[in-house]
UniProtKB/TrEMBL annotation:
Extent of Low complexity compositional bias: 401-413
Protein name, as recorded: Ig mu chain C region
Organism this protein belongs to: Cervus hanglu yarkandensis
Segments traversing the membrane: 541-562
Bias (Polar residues) ranges: 16-25
PANTHER family in the record: TAPASIN
Domain of life of the organism encoding this protein: Eukaryota
Domain Ig-like: 51-152, 161-262, 270-367, 420-521
Amino acid sequence: MGSQEERGKRLGGTSPVGQCPQTRGFNRGHGSRILAFCIGTTGLSASESHPKVFPLVSCVSSPSDENTVALGCLAQDFVPNSVSFSWKFKNNSTVSSEKFWTFPEVLRDGLWSASSQVVLPSSSIFQEPDDYLVCEVQHPKGGKTVKTVRVTAAKVEVLPPVVSVFVPPRNSLSGNGNSKSSLICQATDFSPKQISLSWFRDGRRMVTGVSEGQVETVQSSPVTFRAYSVLTITESDWLSQSVYTCQVEHNKETFQKNASSSCDATQTSPIGVFTIPASFADIFLTKSAKLSCLVTNLASYDGLNISWSRQNGKALETHTYFERHLNDTFSARGEASVCSEDWESGEEFTCTVAHLDLPFPEKHTISKPKGRPDSAPALHPGLSRGFQGLRTAESSPGPALPSLTTATPSPTTDVTMKPPSVYVLPPTREQLSLRESASVTCLVKGFAPADVFVQWLQKGEPVTKSKYVTSSPAPEPQDPSVYFVHSILTVTEEDWSKGETYTCVVGHEALPHMVTERTVDKSTEGEVSAEEEGFENLNTMASTFIVLFLLSLFYSTTVTLFKVGRLALGRA
């Protein structure tokens, strides 16, 4: 541990902006930890008389001490050697001077550099992805000049744990019921570092006999962590065929693994719990968000309870629907509705499932995926009349269970917003010549996320869903990051020939008004062939030009030959 001046000298070297391998060391002065920082990429000033200010962020993906967050601020290339640092929170409140340190100025190539480090409890900052601190640098050259820069923490990739339970092998048992045996629960490959491991016996939490090791860092790419917990029990307890459960809580998710001396009981519960976020169609059409919690592989629904709650713990009114399947198992769906504004705000909602076959209630939390618009969808004024009485399969009541494939991406996933392109194709002439039914096709492509709905209107009125079929969203072959769907509407040849208009209405949250439409009718066929007509006109003009050119050439040749003949006769 050197003096403060020696620590400051470690800041004298320069490093290319954005390159992490060349780091700068800091010592807080009151502990043994040395923090390594990288220069960020948001330096602002190009003036040589005033300091250039850079944020300093940790080069490692997670700090070694999860209870605190350390950030830095670097001022470079200034003259004279007199600067002062101050820190502010996002809400413009000032960070106490006891929480940050300013290191001495260092001279290099005739220019000065200085830095400041702030260490704060992690619970006080960076609770939201867009949180930041503001570093202010004051320099007296030419008056009181203030340079500011935002400093954010390094983003940590979220990886779920892999949970394993190791049981004592039978050949290790002594036969003495009072001898001790150990169960080991291991969680690996997870990030961030915070994790909790606990043990249950037949659904009852165990406190005695539990010991936990420290969370270890695995030097991988990305950096992950490993943790374990040991449960010490007697051989008689283990051979009693009780079910021991290791429960792991990480990033607001719960994972569990069961173990028992009975081979059949070592398998985890076959019951599956899936949360299904509100669909865009529901929010668009009903101005409310429907939350669904699907429970599968139930041997019976006796003792089943599904409940939804808000982020503050307040219970939501939950309706439960059941369905029996051909393999004699049951499925259940618990539904709750909230205002669209609550869903759009990013509030978290938790589904809790209790059942006799579960050792303890399962909890699953969802929220609106990040990256979507903050404003609730609003119906386009011009379509209000056309959408009267409109309903979708997702918004219809009743016990029909949705497919598991309709589950949307994890709430922690950042969603890229891309509006769809919509094309409507009229029936082919071959179809119309049969004088039976005809197909109008609506192609919707190039959109993200995949949540979209398609509705048809005939003369401005909704068409019954039985008259058209819409495919499920699928990734585009050339660009899997965006999706496409197609919808086929069946119409009669008589209605089409009469000039009926058909409108494909597409709703997607990336659209400016959340909705767009394309209309087609009999007259559209002429518009489709306009390009062909242009080519035909071009061919006619080209043919005329060639004929005129040949006639002109023939005339010029004839006149020339006639003149040459007369000239020859005159000489003779």
